[in-house]
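Annotated sample (chain length 308).
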Amino acid sequence: MELRQLRYFIRVVELGSMGRAAVDLGVVTSALSQQISRLEGELSTRLLRRTTTGVVPTDAGLAFWHQAQLALRHVDEAARAAQHARMSGHVSVGFAPSTASVLALAFMSGLRARYPDIRLHLVESLSGNLAAMLNARQLDLAILFETDAAKRLSATPLLDERLFLIGSHQLIGMPKGKQIHLKDIGALPLVMPSGTHGLRAVVATAFTQAKCDPNIVAEIDGLAILMDVVRAGLAATIQPGAAASRLPGSEVRLIQVADKGVRRRNLLASLPEDELSPAALATRIVLKDVVRELLSESHWIGASLHES
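Output written by the structure step:
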């Protein structure tokens, strides 16, 4: 006896017609009739009686119908209980500050809409710190920037971000146009994260390839303060577009760095698969879906899905 046979039988009794039940269930009438005949054969009794207007249950069919309804209710309740248990729990996710500025709110909204019983612990920290927290089993998931430390984790490329020169309209020497080359901004004052930051390494390599030195006038390891300095017109910076997502477009200009290969790769890192809870696995799917949605709607400036 199969659950679908019970569902078929119940619907036939409710609608009083093989044809109407077949349409409602999305099966052909002959297939439905065959399943009911198999059910009757297994029970060795007639469950339905054909009439000129349709079908009605026999006494045995009526008794079976009541119990079949009860059985299916128990099955449905068991499935809901399993789903509820699977999709509840505690999940820790880490974002770097620039990533959090564009992704955090959308991700939290998406997770709450799909799995409201999952309790989220969201951590904002530098990519290197997040990698260390993953290794220490303090996080389940994190979006990290491509570094040697990140490569040692269970991580897959998620998206690539182009880099931009970001500066105030009032900054003296701020270039015009939509693109620049690094060799053309050697004298422009820049504020950047310190050498321990992965982005600094990317930018330093790019300037070396361009055969020029950057004019770094300050180092700040905090995105909010760094962008305050940029907004005040004290210096420009080189960052992904996400870094300026919280600033009004009228306050700063974003000019894409056109030098070849100047980009930041984002990795989706996690604990090993066998250590992730069902809730963490579900959260990882939501995270990927939200990223794709943000990119498709052009809400993540300069970012594109990584092409394997």
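Annotation: The first strand starts at residue 48 and ends at 50.
Annotation: Residues 59-86 form the longest helix (28 residues).
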